[in-house]
Design brief:
Layout (H helix, E strand, L loop, with lengths): L2 E2 L1 H16 L4 E2 L1 H8 L3 H9 L4 H15 L13 E2 L1 H16 L4 E2 L1 H8 L6 H8 L1
Parallel strand pairs: 1-4, 2-3
Helix pairs in contact: 1-2, 2-4, 3-6, 5-6
């Protein structure tokens, strides 16, 4: 089974932290994409695709802070769960890397996997770039 790159592990932790800081019960794809804007491998792909990372970050922060207020819970005790879509995206990236014979999953693999979640705001924000 492929291992997660250190920078991807950091991004996954950051996504959970972003949700926790906002007292969100769940970490969504938008939290994940926001965290990936700081991942070296994902940033490389975004740069190659001419994504305006700062504009993307602004859109994501605005969406998370204004539209995900229903995820706020009073006593989450800092325990945040990734949504099913979040888990699917990571699992899809792992399976893709595994099937291609590589041994490390990076933020770039997860970024590409987000596009499969066509109904998500994260995929929409990426496509708008």
């Amino acid at each position: 089974m492929p291992r997660l790159s250190p920078s991807l592990e950091t991004a996954l932790e950051k996504a959970l932290t972003l949700a926790s800081e906002r007292e969100h019960e769940y970490a969504t794809l938008e939290h994940l994409l926001l965290a990936l804007t700081e991942d070296e491998h994902a940033k490389e792909v975004m740069g190659a695709c001419k994504v305006d990372i700062e504009a993307l970050r602004g859109d994501l922060i605005r969406y998370i802070d204004e539209e995900l207020t229903s995820l706020i819970v009073e006593d989450s005790n800092g325990r945040v769960q990734p949504t099913a879509a979040f888990q699917r995206v990571v699992q899809r990236a792992i399976l893709h890397v595994e099937s291609s014979g590589r041994d490390e999953v990076t933020g770039a693999n997860v970024l590409v996997s987000i596009f499969s979640e066509r109904e998500s705001h994260a995929a929409y924000f990426l496509q708008e770039q």
